[in-house]
Structures are given as structure tokens and as C-alpha cells.
Amino acid sequence: MATSPIRIAVDAMGGDYAPHEIVDGSVQGAREHGVGILLVGKPDDVERELKKHDTQGLSIEVVPASEVIEMGESPATGLRKKKDASIIVTAKCVKTGQAQGMVAAGSTGAAMASALLYVGRIDGVERPAIGVRLPSSTSTHCLLIDAGANADCTPEMLTQFAVMGNVFMHNVYNVEKPRVGLLNIGEEQGKGNAFAHTAFQLLEKDERFQFIGNVEGKELFNGSADVAVTDGFTGNVALKSAEGVMRMFGSVLKSQLKSSLRTKAGALLAEPALRGSMKEVDSEEFGGALLLGIKGICVISHGGSRARGIKNAIRVAKEAILADVLGKISNQIQEGIEIHDHS
After folding, report:
1. How far apart are CA 314 and CA 29, in angstroms?
2. Hey, do 1-125+293-323 and 127-285 end up sharing a CATH topology, with the first three levels equal?
3. Any idea of the CA torsion for 185, 154, 205, 141, to the nearest 10 degrees?
4. Pairing of strands 227-229, 179-183
5. Are 16 and 332 in contact (CB under 8 A)?
6. Cβ neighbours of residue 119 under 8 Å, at least 6 residues apart?
7. Closest CA to 124 of 252, 294, 310
8. What are the domain boundaries of the chain?
9. pLDDT at res. 221
10. What is the pTM assigned to this prediction?
């Protein structure tokens, strides 16, 4: 069997459509992105799905895990009671060096907890954060960080989120000098609560990234910033609100296009443009969110991910590994600690 310098562990049992869509996407990812895949899960179930695909020449290995932490299950309870859960074994593959990265589409809480517990934080990182790349009306996409890992944050944590987001956008998406903004209720300095005021002051004096000041929620999608920093509570509300608006818009558009013969005819003519537009806001196309700040690449996919979403999550993991995101985040975090120690 062919070998690959990059190996990614995939939780084959996580998500609404596991294991068939996860295995399908992993096979596509191995073939299209030229990486080795460790499929973690119940061997009989995973092997059954693998037999449906041509895997000749691909580096795909099944790693046994006898238990599954379900979507609605408490992550803390699941991790305590199910020591052989697929998400735990997936994280252990990264910890032991069998894989450089992991992809999980199951419980976000279980994926974060497993990565934190078994892979561990990069030295100096106070809290890992979820970075989600948002669609945009321009060619520039904005990374929202934190998008839900930490409901309660200190202003100091936001400077680390800014560092991690800056490294990611510069090295993975080739943004020369990412513009970092603080998500707030107004653009002017002095807007927001005491937390926002303190965070603004800390971000403004940090020389590790280019801080552009406050950005409002409406500016997340128009190319005004490359990185938008916030606490996980606010970030998750913003993310879920955006997802809801996109779904509503898609539903209303579909309904309107089917409302008469004239709109149906217009829809046929506009189909290529509509398909391209929907692709720009499709979570399957983006692949997943990165949990930044741990000692391994961790991509958390949507629970409803189909094969295309998993394939693209594997792409995101590969890009982050090749760009040495971990090493560069570590260097930047250590630089901040040294500056703080000497000040």
C-alpha cells in the first residue's frame, strides 16, 4: 500500500451520517489530497463501508474503537464512561504521532474535550479557540475566532486568539498582512462594555498583528477584516445567526423561483450563477472549523456533514499541516510571553 508523509485520523462514527458518508468522504479525501487516512471506529461497520469503494493505491487504515459518544450525550460523561470512544481514540492517534491531524463531525464538545485532554495545548496558550472562515461578498474571507470554544473569556485571551487567527490566515490562505478587528457593537473606539474596552487596548498595543479596531457584525461578510476576534459566547451567537439567515434566504429564494412559470424560466437561465453563489455560502465547501491552540491539527466539521464536507475538512487539515500552523502559533505565543516578561 502507498505511503504518505501526512496522515490524518478521522472519527468514522461521528456525525448524523456516520459511518457511510464519513468513510465516503475520507476515501475521496485520500485520493484527491494525497494523504494517509486513519479511519477510527467500529471495525465491522467501517470495513463494510470501505468495501463499497475502490481503495487501491490509497493509504487507508482502520483503527478500532468500540464505543461512540452520541451527539446529544454530555461530553464530560461520555469521556469519563467511554474510554474506547471513537473520538478519544482519534485524538490519541494525534497524541502518539500516528497522525498529524484529526477530523471530527460528531459532538463538538466531545471533540474539543478529547483534543484538549489527549493532545494538549501548545505551551503558553491559555485556551484553544475555534476559528471559522465565513463567506464573503468579496474575495477576502473573514476568520471568526472564537466561534464557541470558550463562553467565558478574559481580554488577555483575545490577544492570543488574534495571534492564532493571524497566523492561520497568513500561512494557510496567504493573506499578506491580515487585518485583525475586534467584534463590537460599533466601529468607534470606546464602544461596547468594559470587557471590550480592555480587549481593545490590549489588541491595539500588540505588535504581532495588524489591529484595525472595532468591526460590527454586518462587516463580517463584506471583506472589512480578515480576522474578527471575540469571546466564544458572542462568536457562537454570531455564527448561528448567520447560518440561520443563510438557510432562510435559501429557502425563500427557492420558494420564489418556483412561484410561477416566468420565475421558473428565469431560474433555469440563472442556474449557473445561483449554483456558484450557493457554493460560496455552503458549509460543506468550507469543510470545517479549526480548533487552534492545541498540539495537533483538529478540524471540527458540521454534525450534518456529507462526504463532500469530510473531503474538504481533510483538505483544511492538510493545508494547516503543510503550513506548519502549530509551529508558527507556538513561536508567536512564546514571543508574547517573552515581551510580557521583559515589560
Report:
1. 6
2. yes
3. -50
4. parallel
5. no
6. 91, 94, 95, 102, 294, 295, 296, 298
7. 294
8. 1-125+293-323, 127-285
9. 87
10. 0.86
- The vertex-123 CA angle with 118 and 126, nearest 5°, equals 85
* Residue environment code for 269-294, b if the CB has 16+ CB neighbours within 10 A, otherwise e: eeeeeeeeeeeebebbebbbbbbbbb
Rg over alpha carbons for the chain, rounded to the nearest Å, is 21
Q: Detail the DSSP E strand segments found in the chain.
A: 7-11, 36-41, 60-64, 101-104, 129-134, 142-145, 179-183, 210-215, 227-229, 289-292, 297-300
Strands (E) in 25-120, as ranges, are 36-41, 60-64, 101-104
324: number of Cβ within 10 Å: 13
Q: Are 293 and 127 in contact (CB under 8 A)?
A: yes
Q: What are the 10-residue block averages of pLDDT along the chain, 343 residues in total?
A: 75 94 96 96 96 94 95 89 96 96 93 94 94 80 92 95 96 93 92 94 95 94 93 92 75 72 64 53 67 95 90 94 93 76 54
Q: What is the CATH number of domain 127-285?
A: 3.40.718.10
Q: Quick one: which of 295, 329, 289, 326 has its CA closest to 103?
A: 289
- How far is CA 4 from its chain centroid? 23
What gap in Å lies between CA 28 and CA 58, rounded to an integer? 10
- Alpha-carbon 223 to chain mean position: 19
pLDDT score, position 270 = 57
Determine the residue type at 21.
Answer: E
- Spatial contact of 101 and 299, defined as CB atoms under 8 Å apart: yes
User: What pLDDT, on a 0 to 100 scale, did the predictor assign at position 72?
Assistant: 84
Q: What 3-state DSSP class applies to 114?
A: helix
CATH fold of 1-125+293-323: Isopropylmalate Dehydrogenase (3.40.718)
Going along 29-121, which residue ranges are E strands?
36-41, 60-64, 101-104
Give pLDDT, residue 2: 43
